[in-house]
Every structure is written in structure tokens, then in C-alpha cells.
Specification:
With 132 residues, the chain is mostly helical. Helix content is 63%, strand content 0%. The chain has 7 helices and no strands. The chain has helices spanning 9-23, 30-37, 41-48, 51-62, 71-84, 89-102, 104-115. Helix 1 packs across helix 2 (30-37), helix 1 packs across helix 4 and helix 1 packs across helix 5 (71-84).
Length: 132
């Protein structure tokens, strides 16, 4: 008989989402996920099967209705598109459905988010010199 889970799946996927959002999929290690979730490696694999299946669950949870308004969901979608979609049909399907469901505004949103790191830093105004 299988033991009952001693963790809340929604909490674990939220903690994993933070790791994937910060590091990206490829750079996030199982050790990073174990540390963030507090689960043992075996429990993580038993519950989700693999790092890739965990990311798929995280992405599906992030792409619930209203996702374009949540920055972390946009970041996870970009990570999925860049790092996994080219080789993973399930991730591609999740990405495609989310983008098609939200329409043309999503293309603009994704483009702006991808270009944001390329924006030059704001110019600082030199402090006013006081005349004494």
C-alpha cells in the first residue's frame, strides 16, 4: 500500500516555479528543486516522474486564465519557448494553446518582455551643484 503524500502539491509546484523562473529550466538542477521544496529526491521523482514533468506541471498551473497579467507566468512561458518547446511536444502544445487563447496582444507582451533586458539603463541626472 502506498503511503499518503506528506506535502501539498500546489505548494511544491509554486516553489519549483520560483526556481525555474529564477534559473531557467536547463540551469535548475534537481538539487535546487529539492532544496526549494524540502522534498527528498525520491519523493520528488515519485510525485512528478522527472524534472521535465515537474516543469510541465508548473507551466500548466502558471498558464491558467489571466496568465498574461502575472509576470512569473510570462517568464515561465518564455523559458518554455526558449528551452523546451523546440524538442517537447507537450510543452509546445501548452505554449501554443496559451498564446492562441490570448490573441495578438500576447505576441506584443512576449516581445516586450524579451526586449526589456536590452533596454539601456535610465540616465541619472547629475546632482545640482549649489553655489555658495
Amino acid at each position: 500500500m502506498a503511503r499518503p503524500r506528506n506535502f501539498d502539491e500546489a505548494t511544491v509546484t509554486s516553489q519549483a516555479a520560483a526556481v525555474f523562473g529564477r534559473l531557467g529550466y536547463n540551469a535548475a538542477s534537481i538539487d535546487d528543486l529539492v532544496k526549494a521544496t524540502g522534498l527528498l529526491r525520491g519523493s520528488l521523482y515519485k510525485a512528478f516522474g522527472s524534472k521535465q514533468h515537474l516543469f510541465e506541471r508548473v507551466l500548466a498551473q502558471a498558464l491558467q486564465p489571466g496568465w498574461p497579467a502575472r509576470q512569473e507566468a510570462v517568464d515561465l512561458l518564455i523559458i518554455a519557448l526558449k528551452e523546451l518547446a523546440p524538442a517537447d511536444a507537450a510543452i509546445t502544445a501548452l505554449c501554443r494553446a496559451a498564446v492562441l487563447e490570448t490573441g495578438a496582444a500576447t505576441a506584443r507582451l512576449l516581445g516586450e518582455r524579451l526586449l526589456h533586458p536590452l533596454d539601456p539603463p535610465p540616465k541619472e541626472t547629475p546632482p545640482c551643484l549649489s553655489s555658495n
